[in-house]
Amino acid sequence: RTMAVSTRRSSSARATRDSAAATGGFVFCVLLALQYALQPFLNGRCLSPEVNKLSLVLGVEVAKIAIAVGLMCVEGRGSWERTFTGWTPYAASLSVLPSVVYAVQNYLLVVGASLLDGVTFNCLNQSKLISTAACVYVVFGVRQSRIQMLALAGLLLATVLLQEGGKEGKGGGETGTDASTDRSINNQSANQSFGVAAVLAASALSGVASAATQFSLQKLGRTSTALTVEMACAAIPCILLAHFVSLEDSSSAEEFGRALFSGWSAKTFAPVASSALGGIFVGQITKRLGGVAKGFSIVGGLVLTGFAQGMVGNRPISAKHVTALAVVVACTYAHGTYPPGKKKKKE
């Protein structure tokens, strides 16, 4: 009887913990969906065209460190020891590869976000599922179900729709042959094509970085907070070096800093902080609810982006945008809901 009571108490405590984790995970899902939807609008409203893109990536990495340290402080005494338990120089050195890849990826995403509208950017960004699935299969042997492969093919279809839509002019109406108008349309088309290429390249790099990060977290047993701090610390020197190399005149530290943070204002901190928070939200959701819940959050962000762009923008969403949005939502849901079944063991 005593053992039965103890079992019931332990089951009740476990259920309470699971309920608290689910509640917290739901809150982070809502926050990630809002962040994902608002990020393109924050980039468009708060970032000056003259802002140095490398400085934005640097700001995100610094913000990640600040947020991670803040979370450890909130956890209380012993949090630093728990976070970095089993730390070794070898394990830390493995954070260099994904950190450099993520730094390049973030730079490409910033470039793409500055040249594309919110729906196009978010839909194209979902193609990272394809590269992630391929890299995880190569590294871990994790296969995809038939429905998941169909979903990945659907995402490719959505990217093709959006690339074709990018060739259309945004102005419409006038069909004059004025030279300046033609140059403006050509420049607009070239910028959008460059933005599409930047986002697709970032998505491809995302698969490489995801596989490397998963290796550190699963094979080496690293904590997500420790990996976040190490990757940010490894990326910051690379970003500064890239900025130094790009300077024509690097004679003084003052000129170095002025060129790096050119175009910054008080509003610039909003998209930088939002991007850093998005990374923290993803880690919390994965820890509490798993990766499938993150997919639902991203779908929610896509839907919110589409509605917001239709209500706030100066023009309605095009038919190709609506089609691509529907395809991405359906494919993201299918990919997260129908994983490969487990093979039955032979008796």
Task: Based on the model shown, name its key terms.
347 residues, mainly alpha, 78% helix
Break the fold down into its secondary structure elements and pairings.
Blueprint: H1 2-46, H2 53-75, H3 79-83, H4 89-93, H5 96-115, H6 118-125, H7 128-140, H8 146-165, H9 179-219, H10 224-246, H11 253-260, H12 269-288, H13 291-312, H14 319-337
Helix pairs in contact: 1-12, 1-13, 2-5, 2-10, 2-12, 5-9, 5-10, 6-9, 6-13, 7-9, 8-14, 12-13, 13-14
How would you characterize this protein structure?
- The chain is mostly helical.
- Helix content is about 80%, strand content about 0%.
- The chain contains 14 helices and no strands.
- The longest helix has about 45 residues, at about 1-45.
- The model is unreliable at about 165-175 (pLDDT under 50).
> Strand fraction band?
under 5%
Structural class: mainly alpha
Shape annotation: globular
Helical content (DSSP H or I, runs of 4+) = over 70%
Specify the oligomeric state.
Answer: single chain
Report the radius of gyration as a whole number of Å. 22 Å
Low-confidence stretches: 164-175
Arithmetic mean of pLDDT: 75
Can you count the helices? Answer: 14
| Largest sheet properties | none
Q: Total number of β-strand segments?
A: 0
Task: Please give the alpha-carbon distance between the first and last residues.
Answer: 38 Å
What order do the SSEs take from the amino end to the carboxyl end, as H and E?
HHHHHHHHHHHHHH
